[in-house]
Design brief:
Strand content: 5-15%
Shape: elongated
CATH topology of the largest domain: Four Helix Bundle (Hemerythrin (Met), subunit A)
Oligomer: single chain
CATH architecture of the largest domain: Up-down Bundle
Order of helices and strands: HHHEEHHHHHHHEE
Number of strands: 4
């Protein structure tokens, strides 16, 4: 059972973090109903808190509210996933291009140094270290890009594709391939300072990730009698 620390962060934020994490980890599967009463009991909080959390998760597109059924964990189609990755490719391509144009020398060195550290934290790391090191990579990239609107928009996209990033972080082969793609982005954006090459390398990275996301989602998600559920594979 999750433990809610009432003296720490606001209850709503604690429950939001826990439930979001459970969805991203696959403990609540696509199409599963999220009953308010069950969630109140599970987290020991009021229906008001649960409703606020569900509204936030709906705004992040992690759940959908179905008339007559209530909230369910979002079920994505192949088209939905492809559309998300099209937007992600455009945004991250822009971020890499802007970094090549705008980043200071210290920012460029920071990205280069971080990539070197990722040999340990990403290539040889576990799920947690891979997530954190990849997130740090984007924080540095976006800091150098210097566009707050882009940063906010990309944060929303990253939230929506969190499940697919988890899939990729569990695959050592994909992680190794991803690291080489990140190396190409750093070379173009931070070393050569070539905006078009940086954009191209970043778009290539996301196009491959999107293709693999669709294949992995279809492999893990099946439809049986109208009920969508994950196969018995640890996420």
């Amino acid at each position: 059972m999750p433990v809610i620390e009432r003296h720490a962060a606001p209850l709503r934020q604690q429950v939001l973090t826990l439930l979001r994490e459970e969805i991203l980890e696959g403990r609540h599967v696509p199409g599963e109903r999220l009953r308010e009463q069950d969630l109140c009991v599970a987290y020991g909080v009021s229906r008001t808190v649960i409703r606020e959390v569900l509204r936030q998760l709906e705004s992040e597109s992690l759940i959908s509210v179905i008339p007559g059924r209530g909230p369910i964990v979002a079920v994505l189609s192949k088209h939905d996933i492809a559309s998300l990755y099209e937007v992600r490719a455009a945004l991250e391509g822009l971020a890499a291009s802007l970094f090549a144009r705008r980043a200071s020398s210290p920012q460029a060195e920071r990205l280069i140094d971080h990539l070197a550290r990722m040999e340990r934290t990403y290539l040889q790391g576990d799920l947690a270290s891979r997530e954190e090191s990849k997130s740090a990579f984007y924080r540095i990239l976006l800091d150098g890009a210097g566009n707050e609107v882009l940063t906010a928009d990309l944060a929303g996209v990253h939230t929506r594709i969190g499940l697919f990033r988890r899939y990729a972080f569990l695959d050592d082969g994909r992680v190794a391939q991803s690291y080489e793609e990140l190396r190409a982005i750093v070379r173009a954006a931070a070393e050569d300072r070539d905006p078009e090459a940086a954009r191209s390398a970043s778009v290539h990275h996301i196009e491959l990730a999107g293709h693999l996301a669709i294949l992995e989602y279809e492999r893990r998600v099946t439809v049986d009698g109208g009920v969508v559920h994950l196969d018995e594979v640890a996420v």
